[in-house]
Amino acid sequence: MPQQATSRKTVRRYALVQGPARLDLGSFARASGLHPDLVRRLVALGLIEATRGAGGELRFSPDQLATVARIQRLRASFSLNYAALDLVLELLDRIDALEAASRTRTRLRRPGG
Which of 11, 29, 36, 45 is the most buried (most CB within 10 A)? Predict the structure, then answer.
């Protein structure tokens, strides 16, 4: 007697992939050690990036905490004003990009690389 093949449907469940959690103004200010008014000022000056939530509140990516730490180090070490900070941050980002491009070129020129 031939056996009937039973078909079992495999159901795979995947967790929804979400981007990194966004921080509200209060959480971001606490995590960075800054007053919320100063955080708002840094956003207004374009030194850190934020998005607006559905209710218009500021929302921050956790990677902006590293930017704030960089700003705090530059202000403490060099007493830079906010206009100078913007320039220095831009130059440091350009240096990082140039160094990355240089490393890539060096790897491509190596034999076997």
Answer: 29
